[in-house]
Specification:
By secondary structure, this protein is of the alpha+beta class. Helix content is about 50%, strand content about 10%.
Length: about 650
């Protein structure tokens, strides 16, 4: 029967699961504190350990609060809020003794389970949260009905199953109201780009196999796919940085005639800059076009989102200030590279000729593409790289931009992503954090900014597909990534599992997480020719009525007459059937006489009546408990009598 320890255990289990899910969001010392509190709760429930006294509990609460603020602080308010809920419920579990106290803990656990969605919105996480709801509703039933855990969990499952269709209908048709508050920028959202590009940073990106975004591409777009995110025009000798004015808004961008439109499903990101394939414009709220043709988001947060962008016309003129900025180099650095630039310049009559000569230099001088290059640490790092001839995209982009500037040709570094992995049916392209890439843009008169990627000349296979699909660096890639489904993709079974899970996640992102006001309006227009406020109000009222009717049906179902003995229930069903046929059971008539009479007046069901009577007599007079098979036989007899016609 009911046991408070069971409710405490279920509540502690929920807190433990949520804490484990938020391992990357909360401080390690705080999580260790929560783990110790949960262990103490289980020790109280199942050993002779005692609960803390009031004084000890207050001292413990004070110590935990100090630990909370020291480890998490107030800079991440959302993390702090979630941590306070977890810690408060743990402390309450230690001292809770009354049902009223446990009920408060269970109710707070509903909020704790929902907090997971502040950080993760994937399909597996959704199923896990539903499981947490099931556990919590079971605990609530244990508190209010004093049932055993098996009965309570079955009732909880029924209630949850009943709520899901209603939830889906409300999700589709209820107006999408704006949030009352917004998630602040969460720095822990792992991204593969930085506003400051140092050639030694991008090698770390191959350690992350997280998805960056998915793209729906028109059939006319073919590889290579250069996903342009940020432009870095300021060089300090080591890093290429974006300008403070880079996020300046471009007034009235003009959409290019017959240009392409692409849709992106973006993962959580703490960056403002968004990937595009070209100079772009979008109608998505809170995203605008910058003066360099990039897309900038004004309110980055830790949630998935989607946007569409179209190609625009961009002014191909270079102002005197822009030219000076993209020619500026620190003095007394990388003299060997400057000398190389001068030699190539003497051979080239135009900027385009210089570009071809530099490309030929990379091809013909033994440069290699590697994810584990030597460390180039001194102030002449570009010279070191050009002499050693081993590096990855960041080295090539930085060195090329430096050489172009040294030759008097405006150049800058661009960072973003390269390539991606198509789904099996080529429905969408998946781009991962390890696909982060850097390349160079060179100014050519009458053409504007032209892409120059030395990787194309050193490792051309990198341009087609994802970094995970590049054979020449496979061993280095797998060493960096570590154990995971990506690293096991050569095994057919694991690769199929990975692709299947990604397909499910894509469908979840496209149909659920991206269902915003625009998608809802489109759905309503498909269902109704004219979308008006009155029609929407009628739909909403109908949905509310449906919810109330469902709730009433649930209550009536819960209050139905139950019989502990199934044979009494089925005998009553036969009596109701006989009454409808005009053969009502008389007062004082025994079940044996009644069933025998029915078998005579309704001979087509005589076999079922006699089978029922045999089991009834064994149970009522023989004192034998009915087996599950015999209960099924009783049910089959009654169903045959009520519904089956005998020929």
């Amino acid at each position: 029967m009911f046991n408070q320890n069971t409710v405490k255990s279920l509540s502690a289990l929920i807190i433990a699961i949520v804490s484990g899910l938020l391992f990357d969001q909360l401080a390690l010392l705080f999580l260790a504190t929560v783990a110790l509190l949960i262990i103490w709760v289980f020790a109280i429930c199942y050993t002779k350990a005692s609960a803390p006294t009031t004084v000890v509990a207050n001292i413990l609460a004070l110590a935990c609060t100090i630990t909370l603020f020291l480890t998490i602080g107030i800079s991440e308010l959302v993390n702090l809020f979630v941590a306070m809920l977890l810690q408060a419920n743990c402390l309450k579990l230690l001292i809770a003794k009354q049902s009223r106290q446990l009920k408060t803990i269970v109710l707070v656990n509903f909020f704790i389970a929902c907090c997971v969605f502040l950080f993760y919105q994937s399909l597996p996480v959704t199923f896990l949260v539903l499981l947490l709801f099931l556990i919590n509703i079971t605990a609530l039933y244990l508190l209010t009905n004093r049932k055993v855990i098996r009965q309570s969990s079955i009732r909880a499952l029924k209630l949850l199953a009943l709520s899901l269709p209603i939830t889906c209908v409300l999700f589709l048709f209820l107006p999408k109201l704006p949030a009352f508050w917004r998630m602040p920028n969460i720095s822990s959202a792992q991204v593969g780009l930085s506003e400051s590009v140092n050639p030694f940073n991008i090698s770390d990106l191959t350690k992350s196999d997280k998805l960056a975004f998915r793209a729906l591409l028109p059939n006319t777009k073919k590889a290579p796919f250069y996903w342009r995110a940020m432009v870095h025009e300021e060089f300090d000798g080591k890093s290429w940085n974006i300008l403070n004015s880079a996020d300046q808004k471009l007034p009235l961008p003009t959409v290019k005639e017959n240009g392409s439109t692409i849709k992106i499903y973006h993962e959580q990101s703490s960056l403002n800059w968004l990937p595009t394939l070209f100079n772009s414009k979008t109608n998505t709220a809170n995203i605008f076009t910058t003066i360099n043709g990039n897309l900038y988001r004004t309110n980055p947060n830790n949630q998935k989102f989607s946007y569409e962008f179209s190609e625009i016309e961009l002014n191909a003129n270079l102002t005197r200030q822009q030219r000076w900025r993209n020619l500026t180099l620190p003095s007394n650095l990388n003299n060997d590279s400057i000398a190389l630039a001068n030699r190539l310049k003497m051979q080239a009559e135009t900027s385009e000729a210089f570009i071809n000569l530099l490309a030929q230099y990379y091809r013909n001088n033994g440069f290699i593409y590697t994810l584990k290059p030597p460390i180039y640490s001194n102030q002449d790092a570009i010279d070191q790289f050009m002499n050693n001839k081993a590096g990855f995209c960041g080295h090539y982009a930085s060195s090329s931009a430096f050489i172009f500037r040294a030759a008097g040709i405006p150049a800058r570094v661009v960072s973003g992503y390269l390539g991606g992995e198509f789904s099996e049916n080529t429905e969408y392209l998946s781009v991962y954090q390890y696909d982060a890439h850097a390349w160079t843009e060179v100014w050519v008169e009458e053409k504007g900014w032209v892409k120059f990627d030395a990787t194309e000349f050193v490792e051309p296979d990198r341009l087609y597909g994802s970094l995970s699909q590049l054979d020449s660096t496979r061993n280095e890639f797998e060493d960096n990534i570590g154990l995971g489904l990506i690293s096991l993709s050569e095994i057919a079974l694991f690769n199929e599992l990975r692709l299947y899970l990604e397909q499910l996640d894509y469908q979840w992102t496209a149909w659920v997480l991206s269902f915003d006001n625009t998608a809802q309006e489109k759905l309503l227009k498909e269902l109704m020719e004219d979308v008006s406020a009155i029609k929407i109000a009628i739909i909403i009222m109908s949905l509310i009525g449906l919810f109330l009717l469902s709730f009433l049906a649930l209550k009536l179902w819960q209050r139905r007459v139950r019989y502990e003995d199934p044979i009494i229930y089925y005998l009553l069903a036969i009596e109701n059937y006989a009454k409808g046929k005009g053969f009502e059971r008389t007062d004082g008539e025994t079940a044996e006489v009644f069933l025998t009479r029915l078998s005579n007046v309704i001979p087509q069901h005589k076999k079922d009546f006699m089978s029922f009577l045999t089991l009834y007599s064994r149970h009522r007079y023989g004192g034998k408990t009915l087996t599950k098979a015999q209960v099924k036989t009783l049910k089959r007899n009654v169903n045959n009598i009520k519904y089956k016609r005998q020929l």
